[in-house]
Amino acid sequence: METPYKTYYAHAPKDIEHFSTDELREDFLVEKIFEPGEIVLNYTHHDRMIFGGVTPTEKELEIVLNKSLGVDYFLERRELGVINIGGPGVITIDGNEEPMKKQDGFYIGKETKDVRFKSDDASNPAKFYVVSTPAHKVYPTVKLAIDNIDPKVMGDAKTLNHRSIYQYVHPNQCESCQLQMGYTILSEGSAWNTMPAHTHERRMETYLYFDMAEDTRVMHFMGEPDATKHLVMSNEQAAISPSWSIHSGVGTSDYTFIWAMCGENITYEDMDHVDMKDLK
What we know:
Helix content is 3%, strand content 43%. By secondary structure, the protein is mostly beta strands. The strands form 5 sheets. Strands 1-3-4-11-6-9-12 form a 7-stranded mixed β-sheet, with no helix packed on it. It has a 7-stranded antiparallel β-sheet with strand order 2-21-18-23-15-14-13. Strand 3 (38-44) and strand 4 form a beta hairpin. It is globular and about 55 Å long.
């Protein structure tokens, strides 16, 4: 049985000019990523990224996609990034079991036929955040353990954006076709991410916000730099950011987010910066 997914269609900037709050949330916000015992997937036509959550409890779970993608198995023409943000678990890749504690990740290359997910403890399940993009070449599968990643520290407490960036699927750690993926932790007292803002004309991006208290929120800003809009987001929700859109947020408290990008290249610094005076 194929794993179901929700489809999000691509938009041009003019499409959202008169969107209501509900319309904006329907097309760019994923309100539920992790469901105990389930796989929740989303397919966006922005660069054909598939992303979502795998939350095994009593039994192991496997993503099964073939007919809907026109392939014999899920990763026949795709690569996959995985980061666990929940309890300890295990990922089995073509028969090889690998333990995955919180913050551990994996890059899984094209043509990998069998990927399965399970939790060590059903009452404290692993939460595997998965992101898949089309791939043209087989690159080696690599475990990306948090203990082996040195964070890139950016920002300043004075500007409320002191943060540590952990680059997982990135040329510093492994090769990939077009997928990039990482993990940003804001320091206590900091609230802003990615400000001053930028766009990626050659890449789209998704953000998953998490490690948030129940009564906190993130205001995620999107849209063209001179026509910004926002989404009010809570814990473990994700936002889709087209290449023409800024992607920046401010929280009522500190938080963590996973960013994932795909597009024409994998140059992390390939971005178009926006001056603060040009934001509207």
